[in-house]
Amino acid sequence: MSVAETKRPERRSRGTERPESVFQGTRRRRDGRGYLPYLVPGVLLFVAVIAVPLVMNVGISFTRWQGVGDPDWVGLDQYRKLFSDETFWISFRNNAALILAMAVVPTFIGLLLATALFDVVAKRHPRTTTALRAAFYLPQVLPAVVAGVVWGWILHPEYGSANELLRFLGLGDWTQNWLGDEKTALLSVMFVLVWIQIGYPLVIFMAGLQRVDPQLYEAAALDGASWWQRLWSVTVPQIRQEIFVVLLTCTIAALKSFDKIFVLTRGGPGGSTNTPAYFSFQNFFEKANVGYGAAIATVLTVIIGGLAFVFLRLQNREES
Amino acid sequence: MTRRLVVGVLAILAVLTLFPFLLVLLNAFKSPGDYTTGGPLALPDALYFQGIVDFWVRVDFGQKLVNSTVIAGSVAVLAVLVSVLTAYALGIGRVKGRLWIVAVFLLANLMPQEALVYPLYFLTKEVDLYDTRLAVIIIFTAIQAAFGTYLLSSVLSTFPREIVEAARIDGANRWQVLWRVVVPISWPTLSVLLVFFFIWTWNEFFLPMIMLVSNDNQTVPVALGVLQGQRLMDATAQSASALLGIIPAVVFFLIFQRTLTRGIAVGAVK
């Protein structure tokens, strides 16, 4: 805003002029200034709860600190240590698996379920559709922690239903210590995440499908396209915006995986389900390695910030 | 024929999705002895409520429900309020640089809580707010309002300007336009946000766990999560705890089902 405009003739914006003038550049800018007080609560909260802590966290990552006393400035030492720390890399590899389980697999299954529900069931049985959609969505409304309690109990090696069911089916040899064995822990966590996640893409894709012009399907059907071909050449391009939003938001959510890990495995066994989010928590609060924890959290922030930036850029491009 | 097959497959998948809930329901009312002899898949011999009662008393579940309700309720109302004020300036007021401000708020909402936790832990101790529900309310008001600002700014930027101008011509000031025109007309979106903020805050675990150490202040997920994380529960206590965690979520789901599905669609594409 230019200095020349500091005097704000507020009253003039009413009545005396044609309302259309509001749309013109200079008027709009002058108008905008009167709204500045409305930004105060939001900006104050943002500064106190997000901006200041974020900057402090980056600052802490350049120190060695146990949480009490004065932090020792060590420059980039924590980052050097981090990049040669095998646990850190393993936690990222595990995170890739969680992205697969929270973003990629649910998007794919959600797409199949949404099209099946929309194509086959929705037109004739709207109530069945609502019921089915609600069933798939229900795990999404649970606190992740409660989902973790449920599955921790089901997958328990001794009294869990999963092993009991296998024994009941005569597959006693297949019983496992699902969450307690390095071979199966990550896969079990991934399975639980898929269960939690499916409902989200399903609901979003079904909303997106309502927008698609039915004539496109009719034309494709006339051309002799199979159901599979229609899915790939009509549905997917038409709802690509939804697919993109789901993939990105779920990827970011997967990068922040803490609560499910805390409840299901606590990062174990042997670090086989550790994630950067959980690894930073361990350093902050269990090992009193605050500087190291802050460095891990900073790396995570940079990655998520990068993804969010890509998201904003692409979204703006879609809009304009 | 294919139609029947598809409906059948979908129905089976839906039942499988709901199966864990059924298992919890089945076992939450079993006595420990019943569980040991019959296993988790058998029907209970008799309905046994003591497991749930014991667990309720053990974690003081009533207090946890109150804490969760107070925290999630306050955050929902305050965050919608803050979002409306900010989005009014950005979406309708068209404050200069608004695109950047909106982008910063969205980024703020997406930041990992791990990058905020230690400074927040430290700062709340400095100002004597550590281990208070107020601290959690303030923190989540900021986090949810960041998302609310992002969403509402884009909704309000398409708000019909003629309506705002007409009200101004009639002599309403900015404050009156906000409360008498913008808020009533945008109420459908605001109610969606209110519901989402409530449920999201209810479900939060990490920051509340760090911030609320005393039993009297903890929320439902914190109490259940910490107990589960410590591996201190037996089979029936676990199913009782699962049931008590599921019930509020299912209640919200049934009450708000239409708002939720409508809201998800709005939030995704906007």
From TrEMBL, chain B:
<dbReference type="GO" id="GO:0055085">
    <property type="term" value="P:transmembrane transport"/>
</dbReference>
<feature type="transmembrane region" description="Helical">
    <location>
        <begin position="177"/>
        <end position="202"/>
    </location>
</feature>
<keyword id="KW-0813">Transport</keyword>
<feature type="domain" description="ABC transmembrane type-1">
    <location>
        <begin position="65"/>
        <end position="256"/>
    </location>
</feature>
<dbReference type="Pfam" id="PF00528">
    <property type="entry name" value="BPD_transp_1"/>
</dbReference>
<keyword id="KW-1003">Cell membrane</keyword>
<feature type="transmembrane region" description="Helical">
    <location>
        <begin position="70"/>
        <end position="92"/>
    </location>
</feature>
<keyword id="KW-0812">Transmembrane</keyword>
<dbReference type="GO" id="GO:0005886">
    <property type="term" value="C:plasma membrane"/>
</dbReference>
<dbReference type="InterPro" id="IPR000515">
    <property type="entry name" value="MetI-like"/>
</dbReference>
<keyword id="KW-0472">Membrane</keyword>
<feature type="transmembrane region" description="Helical">
    <location>
        <begin position="99"/>
        <end position="122"/>
    </location>
</feature>
<dbReference type="InterPro" id="IPR035906">
    <property type="entry name" value="MetI-like_sf"/>
</dbReference>
<feature type="transmembrane region" description="Helical">
    <location>
        <begin position="237"/>
        <end position="256"/>
    </location>
</feature>
<keyword id="KW-1133">Transmembrane helix</keyword>
<protein>
    <submittedName>
        <fullName>Raffinose/stachyose/melibiose transport system permease protein</fullName>
    </submittedName>
</protein>
<feature type="transmembrane region" description="Helical">
    <location>
        <begin position="134"/>
        <end position="156"/>
    </location>
</feature>
<comment type="similarity">
    <text>Belongs to the binding-protein-dependent transport system permease family.</text>
</comment>
